[in-house]
Structures are given as structure tokens and as C-alpha cells.
Amino acid sequence: MKEIFISIFKKVYIQIIFIIFFIGINVYFLTIPSKVLGKIVDLFYNIQENKIQIYKYIFILVSTSVVALFLRATWKYLIGYVTRFFERDLKNGLFHRFLMTKLDIIQNIKNGEIMSYFVKDVAEIRRFLYKILSAGTRLIFILIIATYTMKNIDLKLTIATMCPIIITAYITIILKKYVEKSFKKSQRYFTNLSEYVQESTDAIRTTKAYSGEINQLKKFIKKNKILKLSNISVDIYSTLLSTSINICFGFCYGIAIIYGSRLVLNNSITIGDFVAFIGYIDLFYKPVEWLPRIISSFKRAQISYYRLDKVFSLEQENLKLGKIDKKEEIHGDILIKNLNFNYPGNIDQVLENISIEIKEGQTLGIIGTIGSGKTTLMNLLLRLYPIPDDKIYIGNQDINNIDLSILRSSISYITQDNFLFSTTIKENISLFKDDFQDSEILDSTENSMLSNDLNNMKNGIYTVIGERGIDLSGGQKQRVIISRAFLNKSNIVIFDDTFSALDNRTEKSLLANIKKLVKGKTCIIISNRISDVKDSDNIIVIDAGKIVEKGTHKELLQNNKLYNKFYMQQSSQEESILM
Ligand SMILES: Nc1ncnc2c1ncn2[C@@H]1O[C@H](COP(=O)(O)OP(=O)(O)OP(=O)(O)O)[C@@H](O)[C@H]1O
Ligand SMILES: [Mg+2]
User: 304-334 pLDDT, tens per residue?
Assistant: First the structure.
């Protein structure tokens, strides 16, 4: 995290130097009107004689105000630029971090939490940067320049007037602890509410199907009420803070007026000096009023910083670790030797003593009961979870020795979940890679039996899926995902239960196309339907994480075990549908 801050800072430090420089001059210009006003007041004693002098000062007054205005606009623009730049780079870094984090870690972070990192935490840090650059820098310059100018009028008067400001700072430090506590609470409730909104919108179909809207709403109202109460307590402490500052400033003015007028009566200072002095106090008002806001903003940003720092220290996948870093070196032989696996942090064994051998050019069918570990096994082939050495070999290489990006690009894995991005069908197939022509995408949709459906859509492969586009049926979604297999040129192709939503005719034609595609390649077809796996060179049956049968379709039917049971069940189902 520190590194990313330093790298962003290196890119904008020149702008920051300019900001500090412009604010410094701006503050100096702001002290001029009080000084000039004081001089004008003193010249009023003899207006006739000092007429020209007074006009000269009025001119200075107007022109310094105009210059101050321009300076203010310039540094404000620069601060906006720097903080937006910072926000952009921080979000880029954060997103990159999430994408590169190990799967077992990222899966344990809730969506609402991830959203609040992007929306709330980055914004808190940006807001603090804005405040420290604008208000913080001005405060420091005002303290130096205005105190110096005030001291030149009368040192004792300056010290007496400054006392309440010191008291204000003390009160701020005490109150900020409470602000901090209540803010932490409100942040927690905010995350909680965001997670709830996210989950509820994800599950909106289920909620509607079970008429659960009212119950969901009641729960939301309750959570929102808690958030409101915690936000109110943040507001109370903040108001308390600003009120105490106002009271302290009342004291400042009081001391300046009482003690200052005595000095005027004693002829220690002129009336003009007195007027200028009151003007300088005014200069202090705003920055001191900002002080608690800067401090509370600092506290919020600090909490956000630590939260983001945690994300930045999550364990990353090293894509470039592995001696084998050329795709050509990975051919299609797959060997799995006595593999056992349980998910990190989970004691239940998901895979037990799995041994499989697939020669390049062969197709392996995998069939099994629900939750038996089929998808887990495929995830391990892609090294989505850590596995010990000497367990899985691809192209005669231990997969732990293969560069991760090369390993994953050698395998075309058509996943079981129907997740599609809310973008065009083309981007969903190419997965945002620009190196494919439209004709290649169209060929892939032809092979995946999607082209007829596309012909009925006005924008074809440029149809946007989701929110503003159309909602695809389960079968259409599966075929969009299957198109990826026909687009990618990989030696190994895996279909993980991707035909479940297809009708028999489409499935038959698709399987024929897949047969052509995987000629000479290694293919794994996972399915719960015998019809999808029966033509494979070899079939394995998995039950509760163990391989319970191995063989060809014919051999397995003769075995009269689980495979045969599936076959009988599915045949009788088909018959009853036909009847
Ligand atoms: N990320 C995970 N963390 C912990 N356990 C998991 C995780 N993913 C899956 N499991 C568990 O591992 C077991 C195997 O799941 P897996 O998804 O591999 O089964 P499957 O054979 O593909 O099932 P299906 O036929 O439903 O697709 C299940 O008991 C599941 O609950
Ligand atoms: Mg599965």
C-alpha cells in the first residue's frame, strides 16, 4: 500500500509543490486587505489631504482581491486534479489487487465489503487529501503569515488573543476520540447495509418467487434505522466540536476588542492597527473551524487506509512463477497421481486418492453424484488452489513448475456457472480480448449452435446482455459460454456440466461439433447425463470424492454398478417423456 502511495506521489509531486506555492501567495494576499483597511481608517483623520493616498489604497484593495481570486481558482483546480488522479490510481491498484488475489482468500470476502472498499474507503482517502492540501496548507500559512503580521502590531495583544485558539485545539483533541468511535460504528453499519442490499438484489428472483419482499423490506428498515442512529451520533459530536470552536472565537474577539481598545486609548496602537487586527482574527476563523474537520477526516482516512492496506497485503497469485513459460511446451497429456484435497481451512476431504491418466487426443467423460468433487478436480487442474508437488502433470510437467498464465491459457475451461457480464455477447465470448475478428466470433457461435438465436436479435453479437439489454434463457447463456471453447486455441478443453439446459436435438448437434473441435486435443466432459459422456474414450465415475468406476461406456454398463444405475434411471426417464 505504501508503495502505491509513493508511486502516485511521484507522479504528482510537481503539482503539489505548485499548490503549496499558490496557497502561500494567496494567503499573503489575503492579509493585505486588513492591513490596507487599517491604513485607510488612519488616513480618514484628514480626508482632504489624504484623498490621493486613500484612492491608491482602495486600488490596492480591489486589485489584491482580484489576484487572490485567481490564485484561489488555480490552486483549487490543481487540488481537484491531484486528488482525482490519486483516486483513479488507487482504484486501479485495488482492482488489480483483487484480480490477483488467491481464489480461496477472495472468496471469503463479501461483495458488499468489496464495494465499500471502492466506494467509501477510496473516497475517504481522497477527501482527506483534498482537505489537507486545501485547508491544512492554508491553516499553516495563515498561522505563520497572520501571526507574524499581528505580532508586528502588538505582541501582548497577539498572545492574549491566541489563547482561546490553543484551548480550541485542546477541546478538539478530546472530542475527536468520540467522533472516531462513532464514525467506526457508522462505517460498520454502512458495510452491513451495503452487503444486505447486494445480497437482496442478487437474490431478487428467489425473493419474488417466495413472496419474501415484505420480510426483506422489514429487515432493511431495521438495519437502516441502526445506521441512521449511528450517523446521528457522528453528527452530534461534529456539531459539538464546531459549536465549541464558535464559542472560543467569541472569546478571541472579546479579548481583542477589550484589550485592543485599551491600547488605542493609551495611544500604544492606532485605530487603523486595531481595525487591521480584528481583520486578521477573521482570517483565522475559517481554518480553525476546519481543524476538527481535518482531524476527523484524517481519522476516517486512517481507518480506510488500514482497511485498504489489509487488501493490499492479501496473498497474491504469482502468475510468472514456473520454469515452463512457453505454451508450445505444454501438450495435452494429463496425469493425476493419488491426489487428495480439502479446501483450505476446511477439514472435510473433498477428493480422495484420485488417479487419472489421459493421453493427448483422448476424451475423458466424468460422471458423478452432485457435490462429488468434479468441479473441484478441474479447479485443481487450473491450479486455482495450491496443491502439493508430484500430484498433477500436464504435458509431462508437474503443474507446479508451469508458469500460471501459460498453464491457464493452455486449458479452455468452460465453467459450470452461467455467469455472464452485462456487456455485449461478443465480449462475453472473447472475455474482453481484442485480438478476435467478428468473423471468428460468429464462427464460434455457429459451432455452439447459438447463431439462430443471434439472428433473432437486432444487434447480433453486439447485443448487450443484462440490465439494459436482453435477458438470455439458461440454454442461451450456456451456449454463449460454450462458444469460448470454439474461439480459444487450447490443447486441452474442459466442459463442466455445460449442456444441462440444452434440449436433446441442440445437444446432439453441439456434441458433433465438439467432436470435430477436439480432434487431436485432450477433452474432458463432465456431465450428469450418460448421453454426453458415452462416446468418450474413457469414463470415470466419481462418488463422494472417490473414483468408484473406470472404463468405457460398454465396460461400465457390464459392471452393473453406479454407472449402470444412472443409465437405467435416465433411460426410464426418457421413455416416460416419450410416452
Ligand atoms: N470454495 C469452496 N470451499 C469449501 N468447500 C467447497 C468449495 N467449493 C466446493 N466445496 C465443497 O466441495 C464439495 C465438492 O464440490 P464440487 O463443486 O467440486 O462438486 P461437483 O461434483 O462439481 O458438484 P455438482 O455436480 O453440483 O457440480 C462439495 O461438498 C462442496 O460443498
Ligand atoms: Mg460441479
Answer: 999 999 999 988 887 666 676 676 667 889 9
| C-alpha torsion sign, points 64, 65, 68, 69 | negative
Q: Rounded to two decimals, what is the model's pTM? A: 0.74
The bound ligand whose nearest atom lies closest to the alpha carbon of 369 is 1
Going by their DSSP bridges, the two strands 522-526 and 538-543 should be labelled as unpaired
Average pLDDT by stretches of 10, the chain with 579 residues? 89 95 93 88 83 90 92 95 95 92 86 87 95 91 86 86 78 76 85 87 83 89 94 86 81 88 90 87 77 81 92 81 68 93 88 95 93 94 91 92 88 88 90 87 93 90 76 89 90 91 86 90 93 93 94 91 89 64
pLDDT averaged over every residue in the chain? 88
Q: Is 374 in the pocket of ligand 1 (CB under 6 A)?
A: yes
Half-sphere exposure of 35 (CA within 13 A, CB side): 16
Handedness of CA 415, 420, 425, 427 (dihedral sign): negative
Ligand 1 pocket, mutate which of 372, 384, 495, 497 (most atoms under 8 A from CB)? 372
- Ligand 1 nearest atom to the CA of residue 542, by list position: 21
Residue 347 Cβ < 6 Å to ligand 1: no
Distance, CA of 281 to CA of 144 (rounded, Å): 13
DSSP lists the bridge partners of residue 493 as 412, 523
Ligand 1: atom nearest CA of 376 is 18
Domains assigned to the chain: 2-312 (1.20.1560.10), 327-418+489-578 (3.40.50.300)
Considering only CA atoms, which of 272, 30, 61, 35 is closest in space to residue 143? 30
Provide the pairing of β-strand 538-543 with 363-368: parallel
332 lines ligand 1 (CB under 6 A): no
* Ligand 1 contact, 107 CB (< 6 A): yes
Q: Is the CB of 498 under 6 A from ligand 1?
A: no
Using a 6 Å cutoff on CB, does residue 376 contact ligand 1?
Answer: yes
User: If DSSP codes are grouped into helix, strand and coil, which group holds residue 96?
Assistant: helix
